[in-house]
Each structure stands twice: as structure tokens, then as C-alpha cells.
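Worked problem 6 (solution included).
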Amino acid sequence: MAEGVNFPKKPHLSKYPSLAQALSRASVNRRKFLTLALYGIFSRAQATGAPTKSFPDFVAEIWPAAQQAGIAQQIFETVATGLTPEPGILNKPQAQAEFTIAIPAYVASVLTPTRISRGRAIASELDSPLARASQRHGVPGEIKIAILGIESNYGVSTGSADIFRVLATLAWSGHRSEIFLSEFIAALTILQNGDASRSQLRGSWTGAMGQPQFMPSAYLKYAESNDGGHAPDIWRSREDSIASIANFLEKSGWRADLPAVVEVRLPENYDYAAIDLDFSQWRSLGVTQANGESLPKSGAASLYFPAGALGPCFLISENFEVIRKYNLSDAYALSVTLLAERIAGRSTPTTPWPKVTPLSTNEVKSLQHLLAERGYYQGAFDGKLGRSSRNAIHATQINQGWLPADGFATRALLARLRAL
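Solution. The predicted structure is:
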């Protein structure tokens, strides 16, 4: 699920000068806009974690913020009149699967024979659009296809929920209200631009839309048509979806000269002291690619053991972090790259996955607190294992002499920390 960060001024908004100026002002003053115009709408619900007023009243109070963003009253009323909550959305879990299951299990759920073979077929079918997008943005075709495959099963499962109902309901519930309200106004902007019809603006229960599962703000910032001759149609066009994914990755910092992930072999008696080095330094330490090919000549790379030292070992580059901007999950980013490898005909990883038992969210939070108390961790206590948690675990293991220092969270590690 790709998110944008503001209300950008799109190039084709030159056809709508007053709207373009309003959106430009909203982009420049977004912090003030959200702090002042939306504060009265979401603050009470956010504080209590539950709706404090009726849904129709809540939706009606969005109008001043929408007006400030340049939305015409007729557009707003067309959407707001008679809008009702999305049924059942308040009972859906907030935790995404990639954060709550073991990485090997998540990867296995993605790398199915059907998804791999379908990805290869679609890559062949879209050879020309893929090549065009790669030339324009520098992103390999297999990466774009893999994201399309994971996000919407190659455009088949895009979601049928009304985006306005979803976003308003999520904001009304008090969970991340500021974000969902800004996305609601971004969706109004799409409608006002004429980029999509009211009936087209459908997606998942998270508010993500179309084949690449873009949030409305991401559509405004990154959506791109394959031929440049029309508004990007990420709902019906695989070609536009591929171009949009590539544009997102490039604008997020993709480097065309680096692989996102490289499976590697460590030399015997490796001491695990290093975790973040340049590819050239890893090569000088005797680290080699698992397939026998040479490592890239240069570029920052981090050692990554998604299932501990007994499982596959990878070097992840800046492009791995770029993929995480699409979805803030290590499991997601790794699955994208491994599916891309399979689509391209490469078998990665070659090392079998060991059986691992994931920590619960509460256990991860406890781990993060223990690491912070000992001066190793400075991140959020969110129960999610990412780079900050891995680096803190690695530092603890090195300082305590707990080898292999793989940065991998286990219950045994948690027990050791509690015993310190």
C-alpha cells in the first residue's frame, strides 16, 4: 500500500488554475492546515479512540478543511450527502499480516507456484510497457510486476469498497484520523480533477486504490499514464499501474545500479561484528554471492538474517528501504524482491528456511523496552521488528558476547535480556 505525504500539484492541473493554486498552498501549508482546520474534527475521537459524534455530523465538519484545499462545495456535497459508514470496518484488525507472522511463513504465502507463473506470463505480455517504464525510471521490470502481484494479484483483487466511506469511517473511528481525513480530501481532489469517476474510486478497507493499491495522496503524487495522453487509470490499466509503481519507486530514491537484495555466503569463522558496510568492504571480508556471481562494486549494504543465522543470509541495499516506503514491512520488501527473482527465473534463496516462531506484538514491545532501558534502542515501542530493532539486538549481542550476533529476535533472547 503506497502512501503519499502531501497534496502535490500535478502537471495536468494547469487545466484547473484555481484548484492548482489551492493545492499548491495546501502542500506548502500542510502542517498548519492539518493542525488548525482538522484539529477540531479528529482530536476528541483520537483522544478517546472512539467516535464522539454521529457519522453524518462528523462528515459535515470536514467541509471547512476541504474548502481550504480548493474543493468545490458541489463536489463535496455530492460525496458527503447520504454517506454512511463502511459496514464492519471498525471490527477489522489494525495489524497487517506482514507484521504479525514469521517472515518465512509470509514469504511462503507470497511465493506460490501460481503467483510466480502468472507473474512470468504477465511480464511477457507487458514487455513493451515494462521496458518503457524501466527506461524512464530505472526500475527493473520484475520488481514492478512483483509489487503488482502482491498488491492486487496482478490487478484482479483491487477492492470494491467505496473509498470515501472507508476513509471517513476510519477517520471517524479515531485511529490515525489526521491521515485518513487528509486522504479523504485527496480523494475529493481526484474526483474534482476528473481523474476518476465517483464509481471508480473504490479500493480496500485501508483506503488503498486500484491495481497498485495507492492511497489517494499517492495517486496525486505518483500516478502516471503509460503513454502520457490521459489521466492515469490505476483501476483498469495494468500499463498505467506499472508506470505508476515505477514512478513511485524512482521518486522514493531507487538506484538503478543496485540490487535490492543479494543472498550471500559468509566466510568461515565470521565474527558478526560488522552489519552496515559498503559492498566493496563486504567483498574484502570474504563475503560472496550465494550464486557465485560478484557482489556489486559499491553501495551501502546491511547484513540481514530474516530467520536468524541458521537461515538465508542477505545483504540489503538502499533499494530495499525504497520498497519499504511502499509498505513499511521487512517481510513485504523481502517478499517483493524474492518474487521478482522468481519471475526473472532466478531461484533465491538457495538456503532453506528454518522453522521459526514469531514473537507476539506484546513480546516485541517488551523486547524494545528492555533494549531501550539498556541504551541500545531509540525507536518507537510499536511491537514491529524493523531495522532499528535489529540493529539494537545486534549491538546487544555483540556487547554481551552472544554469538551468532544475527540481530534476530527470539524468546530465548528476550529471556536473556530479562535476566540481565
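Discussion: Residues 5-36, 44-48 have pLDDT under 50 and may be disordered.
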